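Instructor's aside before we start: the two examples that follow are unrelated to each other. I chose them only because their records fit on one page, so don't look for a connection. First example below.
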Amino acid sequence: MKSNDENIKKEIGLRIQTLRKQSGMTAGDLQQVTGIGLSTLQNYEAGLRQPSIPAIKKIAHALKASAPYIACLTDNPFPPQNTNAPVIPGLVAIKNDIASHAGEKPVLAIEQEILRSKNINPSSLSVLQSNDELMSPTISPGSQVLIDTDDTEIHEGIYALEDRNGLVVLRHCRVIPGDNAVMLSTERDAEMNTKHLNNEEFKRYKVLGRVVSVVNWL
């Protein structure tokens, strides 16, 4: 008969493996992000070894999950929301705190199951109001744009970028393989506004996060 400690190790391993697969990461990807050895991670997932608290925190951050959930202290996979505003059960309040002075009040509430299905951590979301016509029609002026602030590594998508003057813009971004460069482009007048920046030039921008949804008000 298995001891309670062995059952906990197995459950922790199962939760790590499930979250990792849901995120689309390989064990090697998780090793690179956390700095934890690959064989150690594999032992965690197999339930052969119980991770330390610091290791659990690293894994939770990489997988955008709750450390207490991985440690089997709760059944909620996402960290708690840092908001005192009342929210309808089943919904998550999203703060408007990017380039805005209204950061004290949540301006959107989203069904938790939608976020779970997209493997998005509610506590990493913020809202930006777009005033840029160059991203129309995908993002119209006045739209509220949902930003995943944990997703700051450029792959391909629309990202919120802040320049050295504090100006925040939304741009299509993608890495150009082999060129060590990032391409920035707009929707409108794309030929005039497309930029190819090398890694040094791209450091002029701070990546605030990736756009995951757009709310266009009628």
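Example two begins here.
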Amino acid sequence: MLTEHPSVAQARIVKDHIAGLIARSDETDDLEVAMRYVMDNYCLTGAEREFGCGTTPVDLGTCSGEWFVPPQAEPGHHIVYIHGGGWFAGSVDTHRHLIDLIARRTGRAVFAPNYRLAPEHPFPAGLEDAARAYDYACSNGRAGPLAAASVALMGDSAGGNLSAALVIDIISRSARLPDALALLSGVVDFRPPDQMPPGSDDPTCEPTTQTRIAELYLQGVTTVDNPLVSPAAADSDVLERFPPTIIQASSDEYLRDQDVAFAAALWRLGVTVHLSIWPHLPHAFHLFPQELSAAGRAVDEIAAFLEGVEAVPADKLASVGAQND
């Protein structure tokens, strides 16, 4: 008798959970209500989450934030984590277990902002708060003012979009670039394809849904061609200045092809980039570390990437960037 590989069975259980949430959310025509319902319950599979970090809340004015500091954290080495949720859902609380895991596996303090959400606060409010959080983490630690030795920037889904857009914003204002960028199932191109990517099995998004999300997020302030909305639309002279970047996505998700294309664009421009496609997992699979063994391995891959980037002198990174894994 044929049996499923354990990893496939794990993924199927999580995908069924997500599909059930989306089916129940379809009972309302209000996309904002539906998305917030899905995001608030996305990780609630019944699994018991693990925590091990000390936390400290921070008030940044337009938004709040929180430090996650693991035992024996390496002083001065920070991560800024931007949570996902479709630009109008999610919070530090919905992602608390993942942020805590990233801090523990990397051995670094992580600062995560509760940025303002659409539609109450349309573009560019969330991006402005992400920038405020990043600038803060460059010059502060949990205990107060501190010039960070290194700062990595990362986010999942919509948070990945804001992270990549923030790099473009940082370049435009000649501020300090992050030492590394990690995109976890990140949205890098808001310009919707005509159809679902071949082979995708992703109930979280489709072209019509992405168009409706864009309308709620942008509200006519700008268009999806703006690189601060679609980082993949940025000019080459901007993209070539990106920091070393790791991009992770599932083979089954709607965003797969745009993440692959973005990694290829960075690679062609000489940016140090590591692309990894994880087979048959749900969108933002990192949020399920107790359910999916691949989630923990993906976080370990990010930790190894950060260590590898710091082990290579800055003037040597361009030559390393010719490798696309």
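The two ends are 36 Å apart (CA to CA).
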